[in-house]
Structure formats: C-alpha cells, structure tokens
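pasting for the record
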Amino acid sequence: MTIGSLQAIHRYPVKSMQGESLTSVWLGENGIPGDRAWAVRDEVRGGIRGAKKISALMQLTARYLEEPSSEQAPAPEITLPDGGVFRASDDAAAQKLSESLGHEVTLWPLLPADALDHYRRGAADDADFDAELRAVFGRNADEPLPDLSKFPPEIFEFESPPGTYFDAFPLLILSDQSLRTLTARAPESKIGVKRFRPNIVVETEAGGDFPEMEWIGKRLAIGDAIVSVEMECPRCVMTTHAVADLPRDPAVMRKLVKEAGGNLGVYAKIVQAGDVAVGAKVEILAS
C-alpha cells in the first residue's frame, strides 16, 4: 500500500550538529553513509556527548567535501556560529571546537565496536537518576518519562550502540503531516524540521494526525530499500534548543507531551539495502 513519497533526505556528519540535505543516497545496513560518523567527547565529565548535554552543538554545521562510503567517512568541514570554518581532521580542531562551545571537548570518528571504553557513558550531571532523565528528556515533574524498556539494552551502559553514534537505531523517519499537526497545535511556537533531525521525511497521502505511529511493527519500501519500523521516537530536550533560525523554546516539549505523548517520528532498521531518492514512492509491505 502506497502511503506517500520521499520528500527529503538529511544526513548529519557530526552528532548533534546541523547537517546537509541530499537528493539521493545508498541506504545501507547502518543507514545513510556518513550519518553521525563523527562525535565530540566530553573531556570534563567523560563520554561521547551530544546536544542533550552541550546544547551549543546545535549552532554548528557539518558537511562532507568528499562523499563518504559505508566503510569510511572523511573528515567533514565544520562551520562555527561566527563563520569560522575548519576540517575535523585539523590539528587545532579540538581547540577551536572547545572555544566555540565553551566546554573542553575532542572530536572523534567512529571507532570499532570493541572499543567499549570509548562508547561508555560519562558521568551523570545529577546523582538523582529521575532528575537526570527529566533533564535529558526535557520533562517537567508532572510529565511521564519515556518507556526506556523499548530501547536496545546496551544504551544504558553506552552512549550509543558500540560502533555507532546513533541514539538507538540507524534511521529516523518523520512525516510531513506530523509537522503540520504540531504546527497547528502549537501556534505560539516556531516549529521546523531542524528541531527534530530526521533522516527521512515522508510526504504522506493519507493518515491521522501523526501517521507514522501506524507504521510501527511494519516494513516500508522506500525506493529500492526496505526498512523495519521498530518504535516511536521519544523526544528529548534537544527539540527545545535553539537551532539555525529556530529559538530556544521549552513550550515545544509541553506540546509534544500533551499532543503526542512526547513522541514524534519513528526509529527504523534497514533490512534490505538499496538506492533511495527524493520523490521515490514509500509503501507499506504486506507482512
């Protein structure tokens, strides 16, 4: 059954930085080649860190000057808010990044999955586990936290599944209808796709207010690729941070919790690699 078409493809060379839009790509086992292939490491508290902890990362932009492969991603070019530009491989990259962020960090490509210490979580900011989770997910004391039992178990020990810098799964899919719904229900907020960092945006032909929630547990054909939709994406505090021309806005999370249980978009795995391109048909496959 056709549910729409592929509206946009987004790749984020460095975890939590703004990324780049593509018109076509090979979708492999680990998603879009080069997606979140680099990340910063917190040299104060330890561990790979994203904008859940270092919000200023979302004001930086990364792009590839050479196309990455499924096996290797070249050093991306990073643009700072003040317009400064450097390559991730430059000798002074960590210094420039730390000065811009106001926090000491280093910049790392993906390491092998058996480099477990590299992927292990750093120290929490709050000794109170509930308070730590509420800060990460941007939830008030009277709002429910996400059901963490749905996530891969390794993310409780590691910042990401070892060998990746993904939060949990290699692909995040969002429908244009969900963005329209949230925009209509949060007229006081500035809603934009950059807040939600999807890899794939589907232009939907039919469905409810948040149609991708109906895709969970099903397989989608996107161009030549087939993906398995695993679970909803519980949103975190990053959706409230300033990014590009979108201001900091905690009200975004209040609306997400009220209107969508704090979720927006769905996580997916790739079960058949293939070429995908903007305009490609998106179908739900028979089980």
